[in-house]
Amino acid sequence: MPRKLFAVFILCLTAIAVVLLSMQDVFFEQGEPFPRTFPVIVLNERQNTHIWLNNRVRLQVWEVDADASDDPLAVFWGSLDLPGSHLGSGFSLERATSGEGSITLQEHVDLGRYLRRGYLINLDVYVVPGGFHSEEAPFQIGPGVQNAFGKIQPADFPMREPVRLYHRPTD
Q1: Are 43 and 126 in the same domain?
Q2: Nearest to 29 by CA among 138, 93, 112, 88
Q3: Of 134, 129, 124, which is closest to residue 103 (Cα–Cα)?
Q4: What value does the mean pLDDT take over residues 83-110?
Q5: C-beta of residue 104 within 8 angstroms of C-beta of residue 37
Q6: Which residues, including other chains, have CB under 8 Å from residue 79's CB and lie 6 or more apart?
Q7: Are residues 91 and 152 in the same domain?
Q8: pTM of the predicted protein model
Q9: Are both 51 and 114 inside the same structural domain?
Q10: Which of 57, 88, 120, 145 could form a disulfide bond with 134, CB atoms 3.0-4.6 angstroms apart?
Q11: Are 117 and 59 in the same domain?
């Protein structure tokens, strides 16, 4: 009889541990959500020309210690808005200036889930130095297309400051 009682006791403890672990994951996932629209500052660090920015922003989720041989854990898209900077189908920033605006994520994306787990979010937007694109001349990736980069680290969450996207000369 004591063996059966001990076995039942062990089964009950195991069941309680499983329930607690699953609840921990639920509580962990239900922290403060990442805002769907968040502030951004884009900086054109070129001294010689304006830049044109595409209105699509790519957000990649990475392990903090990932290297060039790793793949991102997830990739999401958002839209960039820089009021007062519209040019064609995107935005323009004069040389050595910055623009303030926002990035809006797709509805199903919650970056907070990844940030709470300690992942890094890299952001990039396509940039064309000295050019622009419109409906008549749609944007295509090709020679001369570069990027503006930024990142959101787990320590930045919840957000206290705008995300910064930098475009530095590569030539």
Answers
A1: yes
A2: 112
A3: 124
A4: 91
A5: yes
A6: 55, 56, 57, 103, 104
A7: yes
A8: 0.77
A9: yes
A10: 88
A11: yes
Q: What is the pLDDT of residues 64-84, one digit of tens each?
A: 888 878 999 999 999 999 998
Tell me: do 161 and 98 sit in the same domain: yes
> How many domains is the chain built from?
2
How many whole angstroms separate alpha carbon 91 and alpha carbon 87? 5
Contact 88, 139 (CB under 8 A): no
The DSSP letter of residue 7 is: H
Tokens of 38: 């968040």
Encoding tokens for residue 105?
A: 């994520």
**Strand stretches in 27-119, DSSP E:** 37-44, 51-62, 74-81, 86-87, 90-93, 98-105
Is there a single domain that holds both residue 38 and residue 23?
no
CATH assignment of the domain containing 92: 2.60.40
Query: How much of the chain, in percent, has pLDDT values that exceed 70?
Result: 80
169: preceding bond cis by omega (within 30 degrees): no
Residue 16's domain spans which residues?
1-30
Please enumerate in sequence order all residues whose Cβ is within 8 A of that of 132, keeping only pairs 6 or more positions apart, or say none.
52, 87, 88, 90, 92
Q: What is the DSSP letter of 72?
A: P
SS3 129: strand
